[in-house]
Amino acid sequence: MDFKITNAQRAEILTQALPYIQKYNGKVVVVKYGGNAMVSEELKIQVMEDLVLLWLVGVKVVLVHGGGPEITETLNKLGKESVFLDGLRVTDKETIDVVQMVLAGKINKSLVNLIETMGGKAMGISGIDGRMIKAVKKDERLGFVGKITSVDVQPITDLLNNGYIPIVSTIACDDEGNVYNINADTAAAQIAGELKAERLITMTDIAGILRDKDDPSTLIPAIDTKSAVTLFRDGTISGGMIPKVECCLEAIARGVKRVIIMDGRVPHSLLIETLTNEGAGTMVAEELTDEYKRN
Question: For the chain: N or C, fewer Cβ within 10 A?
Answer without folding.
Answer: N
